[in-house]
Design a protein that fits this description.
It contains four helices and 39 strands. The chain is of the alpha/beta class. The strands form six sheets. It has an eleven-stranded mixed beta sheet, covered by helices on one side. Residues 33-101 form the UDP-3-O-[3-hydroxymyristoyl] glucosamine N-acyltransferase non-repeat region domain.
Length: 355
C-alpha cells in the first residue's frame, strides 16, 4: 500500500548547517555535507533520519540503526557506530526538538483545514463590529462575534467560535472547532481543536428548597503570551475575578481548569489533570497526568507532582509530591515499598498454607 505522508520529509538540511543552527558540534567535520530530511526514533531510523540518545541503554539499537546522524552528549560518543554521524550536544533532547521544528515547521501548530486562498472565507461569519488586523486568516464556518479584536498573523480555524469582545493577539492559532469567549489572549498562543475557553465556572449556592441556585460567573480568562492549550481542554472564566494562564505555560489535552484558578509562568500540565476553583499555582510547576488538585490551595514555584496524585493541601515551593493524598515524594515511595513488601509477605504465607 502506498504510504500517505501527512508531514512529508524535508528537502534536506546539511549537517554542517544544522550543527550551526543548534550550536552543536560535528564530531567529524568531513560529514558536514551529508543531509538529513526527517526525525526518527533510533530503532527504526533510515537513511536521511536524525535521532538522539540520552543514555547507554540505546547501545543495541544503535548497532542496527540506519540513521544518518544522532545527537548525543559527549560522554556517549563512543557508543555511536562508525556509519552514523555524531552531532555533539550539551542538550540533545532540546536540540532534537529544535531540529524537528526546522525539518517540520508545519507540524508546530494546527494546520488549516482548507486550501482556500482568501484571508477571510466567504463561508465564515465575521460581525461587522469585529476588528481584524491585516494578515488574519479565518476559515469556513468560523464565527467572529461583535467587538472581537484579532491581531495580525493570527489564524482562526474552521468552525471555531470567537465570542463578542474577545481580544486575541498576534500570531495566534485558534484551531478547528475551538471556542473562545470572555477571554483576553496574548501573542503567539496556540489553542488546539475542540478546546473550550471562557465558559461558565461551576458555582452554585444552596437553594431555599432542596436543590441549588446558580451563582453568576462574570469574570474573564486571561491567557498570556506563548501559551499552548491542548485539544478538548476546558478553562472556565472567573466568577467575579479572572482565571489566569501564565506566560509560556503548556497545557495538554483534556485538562479541566476551574474558575479563578491562577497558573504561573512556564508550567507543564499533563492530560486529565483537574484543577478546582481558586487554586494558585506558582511558576515552573509540573503536574503529572490524571492528578486532581483541590480548590483554594496554593502550590509553590517549581513544585513537581507525580501522575495520578490527589493534592488536598498547600505544597511549599520546590517540593516533589505524589500519591493520594499527595505527600512528599520520599514518604510516598517509602509507603509504596512497604505496601509491596506486605503484599509479597501475604502471598508467601498463603503459598505456605497451601502446601
Amino acid at each position: 500500500m502506498e504510504h500517505t505522508w501527512f508531514f512529508p520529509p524535508h528537502d534536506g538540511i546539511r549537517l554542517g548547517d544544522l550543527a550551526d543552527a543548534l550550536g552543536a558540534e560535528l564530531a567529524d567535520s568531513a560529514h558536514a555535507d551529508r543531509v538529513v530530511r526527517s526525525v526518527s526514533p533510533v530503532n527504526r531510523a533510515k537513511d536521511g533520519d536524525l535521532c538522539y540518545i540520552l543514555s547507554r541503554k540505546f547501545r543495541a539499537e544503535l548497532e542496527t540503526s540506519e540513521a544518518t546522524a544522532v545527537l548525543c552528549d559527549r560522554a556517549l560518543v563512543s557508543l555511536i557506530p562508525a556509519h552514523i554521524v555524531v552531532l555533539v550536544s550539551k542538550r540533545p533532547h532540546t536540540d532534537f526538538a529544535r531540529a524537528g521544528e526546522l525539518l517540520y515547521p508545519s507540524a508546530m501548530r494546527p494546520e488549516a483545514m482548507t486550501s482556500a486562498t482568501a484571508s477571510i472565507s466567504p463561508a465564515a461569519y465575521v460581525d461587522p463590529a469585529a476588528r481584524l488586523e491585516p494578515g488574519v486568516t479565518v476559515e469556513p464556518m468560523a464565527v467572529i462575534g461583535a467587538g472581537a479584536e484579532i491581531g495580525e498573523g493570527s489564524h482562526i480555524g474552521a468552525g471555531a467560535i470567537i465570542g463578542a469582545n474577545v481580544k486575541i493577539g498576534r500570531d495566534c492559532t485558534i484551531a478547528a472547532g475551538a471556542t473562545v469567549q470572555c477571554a483576553l489572549v496574548g501573542n503567539n498562543v496556540i489553542i488546539h481543536p475542540g478546546a473550550r475557553i471562557g465558559q461558565d465556572g461551576f458555582g452554585y449556592a444552596p437553594g431555599v428548597k432542596p436543590g441549588m441556585i446558580k451563582i453568576v460567573q462574570i469574570g474573564r480568562v486571561i491567557i498570556q503570551d506563548h501559551v499552548e492549550i491542548g485539544a478538548n481542554t476546558t478553562i472556565d472564566r472567573g466568577t467575579m475575578d479572572d482565571t489566569v494562564i501564565g506566560e509560556g505555560t503548556k497545557i495538554d489535552n483534556q485538562v479541566q481548569v476551574g474558575h479563578n484558578v491562577r497558573i504561573g509562568r512556564h508550567c507543564g500540565i499533563v492530560s486529565k489533570v483537574g484543577i478546582a476553583g481558586s487554586t494558585r499555582i506558582g511558576d515552573g510547576v509540573m503536574i503529572g497526568g490524571a492528578s486532581g488538585i483541590n480548590g483554594h490551595i496554593t502550590i509553590g514555584d517549581g513544585v513537581q507532582i507525580a501522575a495520578m496524585s490527589g493534592v488536598v493541601a498547600d505544597i511549599p515551593a520546590g517540593e516533589k509530591y505524589g500519591g493520594v493524598p499527595a505527600r512528599p515524594m520520599r514518604d510516598f515511595l517509602r509507603d509504596m515499598a512497604e505496601i509491596a513488601m506486605r503484599s509479597s509477605t501475604r502471598v508467601q504465607k498463603k503459598g505456605g498454607n497451601d502446601e
